[in-house]
Amino acid sequence: KGIRPRGPPGLPFIGNIHQIRKHPWITFMEWSKIYGPIFHLNIAGQDAIVLGSHKVAADLLDRRSAIYSDRPRNIVTRILTGDLVFAFTQITPIWRRMRRASHDALGPKVSKTYHVLQEREVVWLADQMIKAPTLFRSHIQRTSASLVMSIIYGTPIADSEDPIILEIQHFVDRALGAAAPGAFIVEYFTWMQYLPRWMSGWRRYAEYWYEKDSALLTGLFSGVQARVDAGDNGPSVAAKLIKVQDQDSLSVLDSAWLSATLYAAGAETSAGQMEWFMVSMILNPGVQKAAHTEMDNIIGRGRMPTLNDYDQLPYIRAIVKEVLRWRPVLPLGACLPHRLSQDDWYDGYFLPKDTTVIPNIWGLNHDTTVYGSDADTFRPERHLDEAQKLKPAPKDTKEESHCSFGFGKRVCVGRHVANRTLFIEVATILWSFNICAAQDESGNFVMPSSEPATEGTSLILRPRVFGCELIPRFSEVPTIIAHTMDVQNSDATM
Ligand code: HEM
To answer: Which PROSITE patterns match (predicted)?
Structure first.
């Protein structure tokens, strides 16, 4: 039907699997230089293409999103989640309803109703950082988990070791783990799905956990139902799902899984980006200094920043864009590639139905033809013009200046919330602290690595474990944080 894109030669049966183990996004950048911005991989007999330029990614995933927005069919995940995690599902009627409900609950206008929750959480974060600075990573974790829990279920979390959080985290690890390439051999040898149940340990595992997780998630959702019935009017996604009753309403089970999907997609991603923010600040004191100057000029030292300051703080917004560009926590869209749902032709190439389509988000974000020869450098100024206002974003980056929120019909539904969360966390930490490298016993500074960690099972790309010193920028910082907390608490009880 036409020629296929070129790609690296592979081995019989397994294709290219053995060549793409460690940091595949870097290998893919190299292969893009050899084979062009669209190249072919053989994943154990399954066709895949990798997209290595903004234009190709936008041409296919955004401009032809009608046929490039399915997900690969994953046998184990489907059973494990009852096909109710819409981030993993095909474009089905249930995906459409869940996606619409999420957009209605997290879109640009509605997400303003969560500002009060975001502001409360970050002041709490600053307070924890003042009181126990060495535990900053666990404070960042708690804040992300708590914020997403507040937005979704209306229930903040005081401790990152909270039993509910641990239980949900196990659910998230199971779901993401099952979707990870190579997790279950049946995904490659699909005839195994027809083996009897007693020969299929993976099936018994998936069915068992689907029942258990459905009970856990329905319990969480029903807790919100009980509060709404008792007259609680607090803003939350779950409360919105309960209150909106129309022909598109989701069942309790669907709503329970939808809420949990949003938690799974939102908590670790935001926390991972915040860890990269901390690393970028330690490595770039000049950037910190410029941010502190913006803070002093616009906010001053008498109050903490709020989300109302968003438009007045272009340098902070440029830092957020640069963190997302420089170290995207989902460098390949992680376990969420797209799938082509019908035969297609592009630039003289034939692309068969069912091809897995992998955008190299990391590669696009580091493309020197778009970001210049210093694309690997953390430099927020690249997003600003001479008047220190934000520049228009490069073409095909959907006003974000990076591709870290994905593409087309699958573009991250939580991006408005995520952008504001990162903004207020970054602004609050920079208003409060000088962030410095930690010192070892001999007083030498220990710089964090800008290389991503590879250890651990998380699919989120995080920095290696690192320390830092958080020094309040001026003596009134602790008092102003405490005072802001008091005001927020009294507003909440009014
Ligand atoms: C900095 C934080 C975040 C990053 C970097 C991020 C990134 C992404 C990426 C790359 C995708 C895949 C897009 C694609 O397939 O093309 C995605 C999907 C998704 N994100 Fe986010 N995300 C973040 C935060 C959030 C938050 C806070 C939520 C919700 C509260 C959320 C909910 C989702 C959902 C539900 C999907 C699946 C959409 C679908 O398949 O239709 N994300 N995100």
So the answer is: CYTOCHROME_P450
The verdict on the CB of residue 417 being under 6 Å from ligand 1 is yes
Ligand 1 centroid to Cα of residue 265, in Å, is 6
Q: Is the separation of the CB atoms in 427 and 348 below 8 Å? A: no
Residue 329: which of 453, 426, 449 has the closest Cα? 453
pLDDT digits (tens, 9 = 90+) for 325-360: 999 999 988 677 899 999 999 999 999 999 999 999
Instruction: Among 62, 397, 412, 462, name the best residue to mutate to test ligand 1's pocket (greatest count of ligand atoms within 8 A of Cβ).
Output: 412
Tokens standing for residue 374 = 């210093």
Output the CA–CA distances (angstroms, integers) from residue 232 to 7, 225, 422, 444, in the order listed: 57, 10, 28, 53
Beta strands in 37-107, from DSSP E residues, in sequence order: 38-43, 46-51
pTM of this prediction exceeds 0.80? yes
Summarize the confidence of residues 66-82 as an average pLDDT: 93
C-alpha separations of 30 from 3, 35, 39, 363 in Å: 22, 9, 11, 9
Q: What is the largest CA-CA distance in the chain?
A: 71
Ligand 1 pocket residue status of 101, Cβ below 6 Å: no
Annotated binding residue at 412?
A: yes
Residue pair 179/458 in contact (Cβ under 8 Å)? The answer is no
Q: What are phi and psi of 59, to 5 degrees?
A: -55, -45
Nearest residue (CA) to ligand 1, atom 7: 405
